[in-house]
Fold Chloride channel protein.
Amino acid sequence: MSSDAPDSPTRLRDRVAAYLYRLKRRQVAYRHVWVGRLIFWGGAVGVGLVAVLFAQMTELAVETLHGLDERFPGWAFLSAPLGGALIVWLTRRYSAGAEGSGIPQVMAEMAQHGQHKRLLRPLLSLRILVGKIVLGIAAIFAGFSAGREGPMVQVGASLMHLIGERLPRRLQVDRRHLLAAGGAAGIAAAFNTPLAGILFAIEELSRGVEERMSGLIITAIVIAGVVAQVWFGNYTYFGWLDISGVDTPHPVGLLLMAGLMCGLAGGAFARVMILSASGLPGRLGHWRKTYPVRFAAGCGVVIALIGVISGGITYGTGYGEAKHLLAQDAVLPWHYGIDKFAATLVTFASGVPGGIFAPSLSIGAGLGQNLHLLAGEHYLPAMTNVLCMAGFLAAVTQTPITAFVIVMEMVSGYGLVIDLMIVTLMASGISRTICPPLYRTLALRYFAKPEHPPAPEPAGPAPAQAAGAPPKE
């Protein structure tokens, strides 16, 4: 009988060997998939742990600063100028790309792929991650008005960028998806707002979501959120908002005033930030460009002056002041929102690492305090504060859905969903008439300009090409 017969031992042995070979390859593939999943899950756990550490260190820095300012009046006149100069020097020397919020850097890294854009320098790395955390905490301790939520987006994306370099190639995970998942997990863990993290990734980072990307984002947010809740417990960022005393469920007049005021203020705030990033006019801009470290020291002096005017309440994130305004357990000066507005702009112009999410919420709460004085006593102060917090954040970032969900989750204000939606949509629309989108405009400054911009097409027929000249593109 021929060896090629169907029932021959050789044929049977070949089939068994082929089956075992396919089984082994399948087992190797499954092992690679599970190794990749474990690495990704470990990265999400890392984002949650870093968010917890960042929050603890930030609160310690704020408490220590206020304690020193009370014990040694005028302490900020020493810490802010010297600290600002040192932080900017260290940032430019060792962590270039860690300055500012961190969200524009992540957006720039995501935008460069597939669009033939080239970054001036890498914006996600271990060096930038460490610098963002250490220098960000130092800036808050020095007295600058900055937050940790925006920086956590860059920190989370940097962690996922490092994780992506170690994922098995067989997984074929898009780098943009990893960065969006890391950034969304970072902001969700920082605010303890999982829904807002998902919406932030969709509305701001990616402007859309794919099926595979949505799974990565949700998984990263859930894991990072669980880590944060294990440490902090099941809490809301600003406590629980009681609106049981509100007679009118949707006060139209209050909503219109809140939307208009926050839209104008937030749009002007974002406009000044864009102007500051693109280059201040006159001698001030020349001084900043030529002597950035000295300029940061000068900004520190201004920060200290604003702090003296406000009684020291403009230093740091503004979280405590916003919580006092919502709980109505402390009296803040009527000009607190204006002072915080100015301090945050000066902080951004100085070039120190730090976000604007928490300061924007604090500014909104201060504006809400002023709006309550205008609107009348028949509205709850906490209600006007919450509406203006969401409205101002929406106007600055021009992400109304993310803004109202963040604030709603932070105060458990589900009874104000419709009101928050109206105010944020109105404020964001007004802001769009004043300035372009903040983060996307800031992201453009990290791209290198084309060396040879395309020449305009000639109106008439093209002239004959000279002999030996290079061909025209």
Observations:
- The mean pLDDT is 81.
- Residues 24-232 form a domain with the Clc chloride channel fold (CATH 1.10.3080.10).
- DSSP finds 18 helices and no strands in the chain.
- The longest helix spans residues 9-71.
